[in-house]
Amino acid sequence: MNNSVDKRYEFVLLFDVENGNPNGDPDAGNMPRIDPETNLGLVTDVCLKRKVRNYVSLVKRDENGLPSPGYDIYVREGAVLNNAHKLAYEHYGLTIPATVKEKAQKDEAEKKAREKAGELTKFMCDTFYDIRAFGAVMTTEVNCGQVRGPVQFNFARSIDAIVPQEISITRMAVTNERDIEKERTMGRKHVVPYALYRVEGYVSAPLAKRTGFSYADLELLWEALENMFEHDRSAARGKMASRKLIVFEHSTALGNAHAHDLFESVRVKRQDPTKPARSYADYMVEIDREAVHQTVTVIERI
């Protein structure tokens, strides 16, 4: 791995959705997530991290379709997490304590695992990009420790209140022969006609040093945030796009300004508040650079 990130960063990402459901709520019939008090739309941090993972998994592949060294993904669909932990034990030739039946052998295996605890955790960080970035709790049956990740997101929140629509859909085919007389079956989908969302995030240099999160990893994170919707298309999500990524780069590891002050310097306003927004062009984005501490660099990625 390259040198770990030694500066603090914050970022603001604006993304939008058109005629789609950016993050359905399974507890509400998969309707778009919403703040019931303000009717502002929500997208969870977990949803956005999933898209970053998917992008990294897509671009970091060798000619055989296998993950590039150091860029495997720990949390992926259908994965058995303990099997990933076993890779670390196998790498150091350790016996997994949970699989040993004899008490003496189990005690000895646990002792060796404790002695190698730091190395097991480091192996997981070196092997899996999302552990280096987001951290992971790996204290399950096959214990590889716990990692607090340097990259964290808040929930994304829409700039304006959203009005989800429930649309009836039809299909001409049927599933079973007994339904052959039915001309069509009915279904429903939930969409947001248009909404612009804003998410704020953080990159901690001290935590990056612990996990080995490097500047190459950081560049990959920015690339993923810019392009994560380009290969995440589906009929349910409609048209989604990353519209603007603003990065605040501090000059030190601990930082030079409060994160909330930097976030407040980015203002998003409607061009015409009397009309409903239906495109990104209906908004204007302003950065109050005078409010940003002079030792903090503002980088507009897109």
Compile the SSE list and pairings.
Blueprint: E1 9-20, E2 24-25, E3 31-32, E4 40-43, H1 45-59, H2 81-91, H3 103-115, H4 117-127, H5 129-134, E5 135-139, E6 143-148, E7 151-153, E8 156-161, E9 165-171, E10 185-203, H6 205-211, H7 215-227, E11 239-249, H8 259-264, E12 266-270, E13 283-287, E14 297-300
Antiparallel strand pairs: 1-10, 1-11, 2-3, 4-8, 5-6, 7-10, 8-10, 9-10, 11-14, 12-13
Helix pairs in contact: 1-7, 2-4
How would you characterize the overall build of this protein?
The protein has helices spanning 45-59, 81-91, 103-115, 117-127, 129-134, 205-211, 215-227, 259-264, and strands at 9-20, 24-25, 31-32, 40-43, 135-139, 143-148, 151-153, 156-161, 165-171, 185-203, 239-249, 266-270, 283-287, 297-300. The chain is α+β, with helices and mostly antiparallel strands and 302 residues long. It has eight helices and 14 strands. The strands form four sheets. Strands 1, 4, 7, 8, 9, 10, 11 and 14 form an eight-stranded antiparallel sheet that branches. It has a two-stranded antiparallel ribbon with strand order 2-3.
